[in-house]
Each structure stands twice: as structure tokens, then as C-alpha cells.
Design brief:
Elements: H1 2-28, H2 30-36, H3 38-58, H4 60-63, H5 72-93, H6 98-101, H7 104-107, H8 128-144, H9 147-175, H10 177-185
Helix pairs in contact: 1-3, 1-8, 1-9, 2-3, 5-8, 8-9, 9-10
């Protein structure tokens, strides 16, 4: 169990920052990636991801030098979160292909044509994928019970909000009025009956 927890914590502190970097770079430098094309952009983005993950792996000892041990209650809560994340993931997979999850339609919208997804979980929240990842990260952090794992999961929240904002701006430019109307009727994250949604400004 201790080895498993250590591996989970290591994956959290190396992959979470690396994945966040992928999406931040993709959205922030989208005009650059569109000029370079899919192959070159993916090569550079994944090179940044691998370099980041490797660098953090080198520093794994100081990062993971402290841990809180196995806490059955936390493990149980974490498993519930992970179960919810798995169920959510299975639903999302039905409506969002992998090419979209990698951002390929954003880099090359002409070649990777993608309609605005508004069915399934997207009928209740505009960003079910981010909710699913948040549940998964919280679940794994609770199972691992390392301070660094919790920090990685917390790092996800503010940077995820930045990524969501950038993503919504790009979707508004790509889909225009259709996306604005979608934003008016569907909440950004947690669906509730009296949600007040605003048009996304480009």
C-alpha cells in the first residue's frame, strides 16, 4: 500500500503541472500553433510536457519527503470520488472524442471539424471534463495522503479556471452566437435550477 501511495503521489506532482502546462500553452499561444500546424505543435507541446514531468521527477525526494500514512476514512472518501470520476468519464467519452480532448480542433479547426457538444453531460454543465478531472485528482490525493499530492490537486483549481476562461473565449470565436446561447442556458460548472449565465466575451 505504501508503494502504491508513493507512486500515486509521484504521478500527481509530476503529471498535474505538466498537463496544466500543455493546456495553458495551447490556449495562450493558439495563433502560433495554428501557423505551425498539428505535427509541429504537438511535438513542441508534448516536449514541454515531458520535460516538465521529468524535471519534477528529478526532484521527487524533497517533494515527497513527507507523508501522512494510510488513513482508511480518507481512502474510502477518495474511492468514492474516483468512482464518480470514472462514471463521469464514461459519459463524457460518448460525446467528446480524443482528438477534441487533445485540442486538435482548436489548432486546426478546418481539418478537425467539431460541432459544439451540447448533449449528454454537456446539457447540464459546460465543462463536465474539468469536473471529472477535479474529482479524480481529489480522490487520488486522498488515497495517497501526501502533502505534495494535495498541493498538486489544489494547484489544479486556479490554473484550471484560467484554462476554462481561455477555452471559452476560443469557443465563442469559433461558434459565435450558438455558443453564446448555450452559455445562457447551461451553467459553467455545477448545474443548478436558478443558474445565471452570461455571454462569453471574446
Amino acid at each position: 500500500m505504501d508503494t502504491f501511495r508513493y507512486i500515486v503521489a509521484l504521478l500527481l506532482v509530476t503529471l498535474v503541472p505538466a498537463v496544466l502546462l500543455y493546456w495553458l500553452l495551447l490556449h495562450a499561444l493558439l495563433p502560433v500553433w495554428r501557423k505551425l500546424g498539428i505535427s509541429a505543435s504537438q511535438y513542441l507541446l508534448w516536449a514541454a510536457v515531458i520535460a516538465t514531468a521529468f524535471s519534477l521527477t528529478v526532484w521527487r525526494e524533497p517533494l515527497l519527503g513527507r507523508e501522512y500514512g494510510v488513513q482508511p476514512i480518507l481512502v474510502a472518501v477518495g474511492v468514492v470520488f474516483l468512482a464518480g470520476a470514472i462514471v463521469s468519464r464514461l459519459q463524457i467519452e460518448k460525446f467528446l472524442p480524443w482528438r477534441t480532448q487533445l485540442g486538435l480542433p482548436e489548432i486546426d479547426p478546418e481539418h478537425y471539424r467539431q460541432k459544439l457538444v451540447t448533449a449528454g453531460p454537456y446539457a447540464h454543465t459546460r465543462h463536465p471534463r474539468y469536473i471529472q478531472v477535479s474529482l479524480a485528482l481529489a480522490g487520488w490525493a486522498l488515497v495517497a495522503n501526501y502533502p505534495a499530492g494535495y498541493m498538486a490537486a489544489l494547484l489544479w483549481i486556479p490554473l484550471m479556471l484560467v484554462i476554462v476562461r481561455l477555452e471559452e473565449m476560443e469557443l465563442h470565436r469559433r461558434f459565435g452566437l450558438e455558443y453564446s446561447l448555450y452559455c445562457e442556458r447551461v451553467a459553467r460548472f455545477w448545474p443548478h435550477p436558478h443558474a445565471v449565465n452570461h455571454r462569453v466575451k471574446a
